[in-house]
Design brief:
The chain is of the alpha/beta class. It is built from 9 helices and 7 strands. The longest helix has 29 residues.
Length: 263
């Protein structure tokens, strides 16, 4: 099957990386199911796609895990199949460990990790039955190494790597592929929406985020990695070097991160 014939289901599609990826894939002729909490924003994204007649919207909330099995059934009925699930929805954090309330950590784990796992598990039988499928999960460079003010976010993203590496091992025999996409700094509202110590949004942009890749450029690189079924793809600027420094020179990375402009 050609890449342009694939049916994609994208979570977090109402803004940022998910929105940009929707436009990129639509321009290639792919069929899309777009999900996020806001139906109104999803309708706006659909209207801006190259082929809106090949786009369906399906609002969902990852934190409502009890609803996800029904959402999977609805999604499968929209085009009679799903070829690729893009687990993109998530929320970030900007607060010190000593100040952060446990409820904030619980929300980060529930949305970024458990919600993603629940949706993946709910769709897994469909992929096994059709003996094909591709899970694409947007983690972060923070899933490979840490950074101040992001402890809960880093923890959840690290957990995704552990889960999806095992999923690849267990279901390669079923024709199922797994790709982990690790963004660096991208010009989205992720910093504005990041949770602070009491759970309220930060409501301001980070300098590093403002200077990151454009969502459009990121989406092109991400679509290429998906088409190639790349296992792990690090997409960003010089911050991607942190993955290799963590592996070979962890103490040097520690010093560099503490000196760098990460907010």
């Amino acid at each position: 099957m050609a890449f342009s014939d694939k049916v994609f289901w994208i979570t977090g599609a109402s803004s940022g990386i998910g929105e940009a990826l929707s436009y990129e894939l639509s321009s290639k002729g792919c069929s899309l199911i777009l999900s996020a909490r806001s139906a109104d924003k999803l309708k706006q994204v659909k209207a801006s796609c190259a082929f809106p007649d090949r786009v369906r919207i399906l609002p969902l909330d990852l934190s409502d895990m009890d609803s996800l099995s029904a959402k999977v059934q609805q999604a499968c009925n929209l085009f009679d199949r799903i070829d690729i699930l893009v687990n993109n929805a998530g929320i970030s954090q900007r607060s010190l460990i000593a100040d952060t309330e446990m409820e904030v950590y619980q929300k980060l784990i529930r949305v970024n990790y458990l919600g993603t796992v629940a949706l993946t598990k709910a769709l897994l039988p469909h992929f096994i039955n059709q003996q094909s499928g591709h899970f694409v999960t947007v983690t972060s460079l923070m899933g490979k190494f840490g950074s101040p003010l992001r402890s809960g976010y880093c923890g959840a993203k690290h957990a995704l790597h552990g889960f999806f590496d095992v999923l690849r091992m267990e279901h390669e025999k079923d024709g199922i592929a797994v790709s982990l996409i690790c963004p660096g700094f991208v010009q989205t509202d992720i910093a504005k929406n990041a949770l602070t110590a009491d759970g309220s949004p930060q409501n301001k942009q980070d300098t590093a985020t403002s200077n990151g890749l454009s969502p459009e450029r990121f989406a092109r690189k991400m679509a290429d990695a998906i088409e190639k079924k790349t296992w792990e793809k690090y997409i960003g600027g010089k911050e991607t070097a942190g993955v290799y420094l963590k592996r070979f020179f962890p103490r040097l990375l520690h010093k560099l991160v503490l000196k760098s402009q990460v907010v």
